[in-house]
Specification:
Blueprint lengths: L1 H12 L2 E2 L15 E9 L3 E8 L5 E7 H42 L11
Parallel strand pairs: 1-4
Antiparallel strand pairs: 2-3, 3-4
Length: 117
């Protein structure tokens, strides 16, 4: 109970501000800040605990709804880019494996017996 009260008190002291780019770290400038915790604070603000994936800097911010929505869209976009990159890498890997298999088959290095259980 005391911990919850102290968190509430600390959050009350944070000024509600508009942040243009919450994903940018104020310490190292990397664009790898992500939310660790968040919850609504009143009707128009959000409290967020943030951490930078590059330098591990942690911070707490109290932001308005517009800033929180922009941050959410930026996180969604970054996630989409990561999924596309992972798909591209997976396809490149599968293509390289298929190429190696084709070369091995052409050179008679493997045959049907190699796949028998």
């Amino acid at each position: 109970m005391l911990k919850r009260f102290l968190l509430w008190r600390r959050r009350r002291a944070l000024p509600g501000r508009t942040y243009p780019d919450l994903q940018l770290c104020l310490e190292c400038g990397a664009d790898s800040v992500h939310p660790v915790e968040w919850e609504p604070f009143g009707e128009t603000h959000w409290w967020m605990a943030l951490r930078c994936g590059a330098c591990w800097n942690c911070s707490e911010v109290l932001v308005d709804d517009d800033s929180a929505q922009r941050f959410d869209r930026a996180l969604d976009s970054a996630q989409h880019q990561m999924v596309l990159a992972a798909d591209r890498l997976r396809l490149e890997s599968m293509s390289a494996q298929a190429e190696r298999l084709a070369v091995a088959l052409d050179r008679d290095l493997i045959g049907a017996d190699d796949f028998r259980s």
